[in-house]
Structures are given as structure tokens and as C-alpha cells.
Amino acid sequence: MSKNVFNSVNLFIAFQYLVARKKQSILATLGVLLGVTIFIVMISFMTGVNGFLDDAVFNGSPDIVIHQKPDKVKLKGLFGTKTPVLQQVSDIATSLGRHDNVKGFAQQTLSPAILLSETQQLPVSINGVFPDREYKMVDLERRLVHGDGFESLKDENAILLGVSLAKRLQVFQGDELRMILPNGRNHSLTVSGIFSFGISTIDNLRTYVNANTLQGLLENESGITNIHVKLKDREDLGLKNALLQQYGGIIVDDWMDGNKTIVIGNKVRNVMTWTISFALLLVAGFGIYNIMNITVIQKRKDIAVLKTMGYAGKDLVFIFLAQSFVIGSIGSLLGSFFGYLISYAISLAPLETSDFIIVDTYPITFEVKFYLLGASFGILTSLLAGYFPSKKASRVDPVTIIRDI
Questions:
Q1: Would you say 333 and 378 are in contact if contact means Cβ atoms under 8 Å apart?
Q2: Beta bridge partners of residue 226, listed in sequence order
Q3: Among the listed ranges 102-111, 249-258, 327-336, which one has the minimum average pLDDT value?
Q4: Do 249 and 66 contact (CB within 8 A), yes or no?
Q5: At what angle do helices 368-394 and 313-348 cross, to 10 degrees?
Q6: Strand 186-195, strand 158-162: pairing
Q7: DSSP states along 327-384
Q8: What does each C-alpha distance from 254 to 257, 262, 294, 375 come to in angstroms?
Q9: I need a labelling partner for 195 at 20 to 30 A (CA). Which of 158, 263, 288, 334 fits?
Q10: What pTM was estimated for this model as a whole?
Q11: Contact criterion met (CB below 8 Å) for 128 and 151
């Protein structure tokens, strides 16, 4: 036979074997199709869930929070322990501005308070922010349910509320609230916007007002209590250690400290998802292997004839590999198509959740790399499933095969 195994005759024989055993070829193709489909659906769904949680929690929260270490003797006010004022604010701000990994930072004044609507009153934590800096920290515009974002806080009598808190207070955009502070002062505020991060621990507690308004009401107790920092590389927390070494009397919390459950949950889900998904493709590969092995056994007579005609072992391996490649390619292509259809259908399905997570539909991630990975792995497992039995068959002496027939 020709030294070049990639010839039309070998391809013709491989095609004839596929057509002659239609049921086996279809079953093998379905195995690849199902494996790739389930792989894509699971990866798209689980990464969608992780992406939703990361976006809701980490995008809406700072990567690093700097605040003052409280005194040993804590001064208590009307609503509990007062938030200590941060010292060395200007020095810390200068250090942050010079650090290469700092994407941005914003100063805040936090204070406990009571919010009163016409029907409800609730204890809350008030976030006094500087609108021109805070909008660079939190992408609030795409989180708005009603009203305006940080731009509205230029009106010093405006307040932004999380959607869950607004529901509990039974207020809407344009309604008035009365804020009572620990020093007994109270102030009337207008709801200028309602936002939703999809996580009740944020939407049920967070409020934004203008920092100048809050500091003016707190009078001599006013000051910067927190500095929120966004990092270019969230995984690099070298800034935390540098601040603790440079400045005494401060506490530096990072995003891992406050979200350990979510971080661990993401890692567990990722490992579980990839393990199960690849296991499904391997199971599909074993199914193809069994089918190809049976095909090789059934074609023993044909193999003997081909070898007596001068076909080399590499020709036989190529013939069966060509069959596996066709099966794997068709199965992977159809699996990617159905994986997309099912994922798209899931992304449109309504999702009823508790108050902890607020989302209308199932979160799905559509990334090309998942489809390429699933298709590539499907073809690879098909080729391996066809290679081993064909390699074994190519080494058999044709005389032995004919003698056993």
C-alpha cells in the first residue's frame, strides 16, 4: 500500500465501515453528543452562578477596607458602640495614591441611625459617601431599580436605599424618610433611588447619603471612619500588609475576610463542576471505545484480507481513526449546538428565590472557550477510543485471523 496513509482509498474504506454499521455509528455519535452537551450545560451554569455571586458581592463591595482600631474603653452612644474616626487619613490616602495595585479609593463616614417612614422604623447603618469618588468604586447605575444613582446625592437631602430595605420601610422613589442619629439629631431625607445587588445582606442593609450632610449632623463627632479601596489585581493583597506595617492603630480587612463562605463555595463548586463534566466526557469516551472495539472484532476478516493485500498496520490504524474522528466531530458539533440551546433555554427560565438571592432567571455564562474545550475533548476521547483497539488489531498476523475463521 502507499506510504501515504492519508489517501482517498483509506478514507473510502473508513466511510464504508461507518455506513455499514449505521446503528453502531449513530450510538457512538450520540454518546459524544450527550457528553459534550452535558459538559457545556454544567460548565455554563456553574460558572454563571459563580459569576453572579462574584459580581453581586465583590463588585458591590471594596477589596480592602481601612478603619480605626477601637479604643479599649469603647464609648457607647444611643444605638450601641460608636464607629471610631480614622486617624492619619491624609497620609493613608497619599500612600494609596502611590501604590501600583490601587485602582481607586473612596473615603466614607459611617454611623448607626434609625430610619422612619410613615409606617415603619428600622435601625440601619448609614454610609456617608462623596459622590464624585464613590461612583468610581461601585457601578451603581446598572443596579438601579428606580431613580438615580450617586449623581442624585449632590442633593444633600437625598438618600439611596437597597431594594429589600425599601420594601421593609414601605417607601418608593420620591418618598420622605426621617433619619435619627446617635446624638439625637434628626433630618428629613428624600429617597432619590433604589438599587439591587441581588444579595439580601447588601440590599437589606446598605444606604447611601452625602458625606457632608452626615458629617454636618454629627458635628464634633464627624470625620472619616472608613477608606474603601478597589484593587487592580484582587488576588494581590500585598497592600494590606504594607499598610499594617506603616500605620499603627488601624484595621485592614480584605475581601477574603468578609466573604470566606462565598470564596470556599466557589472553589468547591468549580472543582465539582469540572470533575463531573470531564467524567461525563470520559464515560462517553469509554462507550465509544466499546463500540469501536466491537467494530474491530467484527471486522477481523476484513482486516486479514486488507493485510494480505499489502495494507500496513498504519493504514488500518488510520482507517479506524478516521471513523473515530468523524464520529467525534459530528457528535461534538451537535453537542455544542444542543448545549447552547439548552443553556439559552435555562437562561430564560424564571427563578423563584428566597430573600437572600434576588435574580429573575437562572444565571448562565456563554463563553466560546467552553464550547471549544468541550468539542476538543469530545474529539480527543473519540480518537483515543478508536486508536487503542485499531492499534491492537494492526499487529495481528492475518494468517492467525484466517485460521480462526
A1: no
A2: 67, 108
A3: 249-258
A4: no
A5: 150
A6: parallel
A7: HHHHHHHHHHHHHHHHHHHHHHSB----SSB--SB------HHHHHHHHHHHHHHHHH
A8: 5, 14, 58, 39
A9: 263
A10: 0.68
A11: no
